[in-house]
Amino acid sequence: MFRFRLDGSSGVPPYLQLVHQVRQALLLGYLQEGDRLPTVKDVAADLVINPNTVVKAYRQLEHEGIAGGRPGQGTFITATSSPVPAQTQQDLRASLEAWLRAAQEAGMSDEAVTALIAAARHGMRKERV
Amino acid sequence: MAEHNAEGSVPALRTDRLGRRYGRMWALRDCTIEVPAGAVAALVGPNGAGKTTLLEMIIGLLEPTEGQVAVFGETSRAGTAQALARVGYVAQDHPLYRDFTVADMFHLGRAMNPRWDQQVAAARVDALGIPLRRKVRHLSGGQRAQVSLTMALAKRAPLLVLDEPVSSLDPVARLEFMRDVMASAADADLTFLISSHVVSELERFCDWLIVLASGHVQLAGPADDLLAVHRLLTVPRAVPDAELPGTAIHRTDSDRHSTVLVRTDPVQLAVQGHAGWQADPVSFEELVMGYLQRPSAATTGNPAPAAQRPAASAKAVTR
Amino acid sequence: MIWVSWRQHRGQAIACLALLAALAVYAVIEGSSMRTAFSNDGLVGTCLARTQGTGCENGVGAFMGEFGSAVNIAFWSVCLIIPGLIGVLVGGSLIARELEYGTWRLAWSQTVPRTRWLAVKLALVTGGLIVLGAAITAVIMWYRAPMDRLTGRLQHNIFDYEGLVPTAYILCAFGFAVLAGLLIRRSIPAMVAAFVPWLAIRLVVEFVLRPRFLAPVTGPMSARCQQPSVGCGSGISSVPQATGHIGDWVLSMNPGNLVTYQPADRFWPFQCIEAGIFVALTATALGATIWLLHRRAAWTALSPAHRARPRAGLRSGRPRGGAVGGDGAVSPRRGRSRWLSRRDESERD
Fold it and tell me: What is the pLDDT at residue C335?
């Protein structure tokens, strides 16, 4: 059964954290189409958070088309996003780590790295359009 | 699972200009709030703010001096069986008869509440590992809290009022208690009203917020919406409140800059774009503390109290 | 609700039963020896019937010496406070305990209106005390039966233990204590505050009013008593009394050989009158308690401000010493009883 985490100090509202975690899990292959998400009660009890928050998160997922509720049975993943295969993930991660090491050696700070990535993404989006 | 803010559904709790006077002092005045069914609402405020007075009027232990209380649409005179049946109550420090065994307490519940559900009670303590035959005085603080909560749940009332339920518990017991509260809220379509001193932990539990100070409601509404319409502005010190967008709630001045909690329309704020100004989203804690330290326009009309000392730190203390 | 009342007073009930048992044991032991002595000084039995005590002075003297001694009298004088103690111990904590320990918030938020809660409790406990009082009285009356045939039952220290009045004393002390408990909100002070007036009223009724319940009779002294050095007169140990009739209660001896007294056959009328006084006081006190509790359903027993813990203001993650501004600044004044109320039990944990 999929388990959520809650980061109390991140400043991100709890329901958004839940939504992100489901999206991430989908991307990484930890959740697949047809998987059942834990019940609202289970999540509320597990994380000790307001069940309405969980409801909100699940509704958001429904709204985004990622998950859907089946009456009497629970909430199931409906999205069929193709997850990145594990091997590809590993390779990408290895090259990312190499790049990060190079950036560090070049003297870039973490913030500068983040800014660089954001700028590059921005540039790529522009290209696509 | 209860709908949050469902249109047309009867609110779990609605008070209408509720007030209570003791002698010539008003402990609570002009309190008009609403809590929707299925919400977990937080009632926050310092001592002497009127929290317990408000809770007792909601429970039916205290008769209002003015105004009225409607629980799920029904108003009854305080102290009558109808009023008492609608609200489950866990008082501060979880009073129980120390001499009684847990089974005796449930027997009491059964004898004094027509809608008592013995199975729920027995199942809960069983799951918690609390033996029925043990005397209350031999239970730990956390176990006593759990038994008190069990009694309130087994009463089968749709609205549960918890008066500072965790302030006397150690952190582990605290977590377990709230875990049960959250599970019950999910399970049984209950509405909770929880009063608390400890603001920092409330954010994860509550979706409805009521801030009480000086006998008046300072802020009330859905937590998410309230957080969305407030911002923490950092502006140069010279900028007066009047030039700020929205309503300034609380301001802290440093040497060169001021931090101001404002209530504003976010769209309007985005338009303003001043140099040297920064707008940050506000945390639950900052929101509540700001309203509590606000030089309050609303007072009970009582003779001027001793000058209110602001809390030691205006900034929220993060955990 | 009946079960709840019973369960809450179960301990007290057991203690009272134990007390009763102890008393019964004592009574049986002492009472048997008294009966033996009475019939052994067999003279005394038959003698009394014939001559009202004249002619069997020795037997009477011996018996009274053994069972009517000063020690005995002193003991039973002290025991006069016991009905009062029973009453205040049971009544003082009835309401006050709930208020002291904060369990009123539990008891009065169940689906039973608080006046009904109180009424059932009072009914049950009062009933129990009546049964207890009757049992104690029965035991004592059985115990004292031989003695009563010599002294009669109207006199001090005897009257107070027989008939209806012991129960009435208990009830009155109980009623006062319950009312005091509601007003003072603490058990022990309530018990004291109830006991003192109870005792005062007891003494006043016994020594001032009782001799005058019905107009005393004045009559001639018995012939026997007019001769000097014959041991009759007034007082508990005088057999017979100065009137020459066993059981009369001599109030005073007047010049001209006249005696002012209450005749022995006024025992039951006096019992009814005195019991009536104390029962009326009980009813008033209990009625006032119920009425006050009902009226004061308009305010809870403990005003909000005193509930403020000294340390807690508004905690924002870290506990602070000292109170945040609002604390106490708008505390409503409730009057002196606020300061007598105590915070909940957890402070004492």
Answer: 37
Q: Do C326 and B214 touch (CB under 8 A)?
A: yes
Same domain, A72 and A108: no
pLDDT band at C146 (very low <50, low <70, confident <90, very high): confident
Question: What is the ipTM, given to two decimal places?
Answer: 0.82
Do A20 and A49 reside in the same domain of the chain? Answer: yes
Helix, strand, coil fractions of chain B, as percent rounded to 5: 30, 25, 40
- Regarding whether A73 and A22 lie in a shared domain, the answer is yes
Chosen from B1, B177, B209 to mutate, greatest number of chain A CBs within 10 A: B1
Q: Which residues in A96-107 are b (16+ Cβ under 10 Å) and which e?
A: eeeeeeebeeee
Q: In whole angstroms, what is the distance from residue B237 CA to residue B257 CA?
A: 4
- Output the pLDDT for position B132: 92
pTM of the prediction?
A: 0.79
User: Which candidate from B185, B203, B283 shows the least CB-CB separation from A51?
Assistant: B185
Say whether both A18 and A48 belong to one domain.
yes
Per domain, the residue ranges of chain C are 2-298
For the structural domain made of B13-223, what CATH number should be given? 3.40.50.300
Sequence-distant (≥ 6) Cβ neighbours of residue C181 within 8 angstroms: C91, C92, C93, C94, C95, C96, C97, C99, C187, C190
